[in-house]
Amino acid sequence: MQDFRYLDDTAILRLTAEKCVGCGNCALVCPHRIFRVREQKAEILDPNGCMECGACAINCPVGAIYVNPDDGCGCAAYIINSWIARMKTGCGC
Ligand code: SF4
Ligand code: SF4
To answer: Domains plus CATH for the chain?
Structure first.
């Protein structure tokens, strides 16, 4: 996804390909289409598009994905929380 991107090289996203069983969950749940699964292995296509939401890691059945915004700058998490707050209030300002 080209919209809603953040700073390059700031997201903490790690994939341990050896653990991957190719279920496809990460590609399915990622809102930014960061993953692709080919030949039963996930690949990270666009690491700088990651917003550290954690959906891929939560839904990986074998713990092959690591996302930890607490180890990063936290800015992506701040942006996501800001969007959620705006959606709740309906305020665009
Ligand atoms: S943390 Fe969220 S945005 Fe980043 S790769 Fe996982 S599902 Fe996609
Ligand atoms: S969710 Fe985990 S096991 Fe499934 S394809 Fe993605 S990395 Fe592989």
So the answer is: 13-89 (3.30.70.20)
